[in-house]
Amino acid sequence: MDYLKAFLTGGIICALVQFLMDKTKLLPGRIMVILVVSGSILGFLGVYQPFSEWAGAGATVPLLGFGNLLWTGIHKAVTEDGILGLFKGGFTSSAVGISGALIFGYLGSLIFKPKMKH
């Protein structure tokens, strides 16, 4: 049942994003920013954590989850270190995910030999 909830939740999030891409003039970069900021705001409001516990990976893998991860890291770091935590909390909490994306992206580029579009 957990897999089904994650699949349906992630699918609904992706369908909503696809709707935004198809029906608005928003560029993909702006939609990505909207998702990250929305995840941060929902985390601040205390809504995202119960939602992600219920939905599992369907809620934590999309960009909404990344925004919530940034918020969680910043909140924890500000609580522990004061105003300095505002600058380091997001980096600390998301370092593993960002590093993984960079490393696997680089390895993928070595394997598949990407070319520039003309």
Task: Write a structural description.
The chain has 118 residues and is mainly alpha-helical. The protein has one domain. The protein is 83% helix and 0% strand. The protein has six helices and no strands. Helix 2 packs across helix 5 and helix 5 runs antiparallel to helix 6. The N and C termini lie far apart (46 Å). The mean pLDDT is 90.
**Contiguous helical run count:** 6
Percent helix: over 70%
Overall body shape = globular
Biggest sheet statistics: none
Structural class: mainly alpha
Rg from Cα: 16 Å
Low-confidence stretches: none
Any descriptors?
118 residues, mainly alpha, 6 helices, 83% helix
Summarize the SSE layout with pairings.
Elements: H1 2-23, H2 28-44, H3 48-55, H4 57-60, H5 63-81, H6 85-112
Helix pairs in contact: 2-5, 5-6
Provide a compact summary of the structure.
The protein is mainly alpha-helical. It is 83% helix and 0% strand.
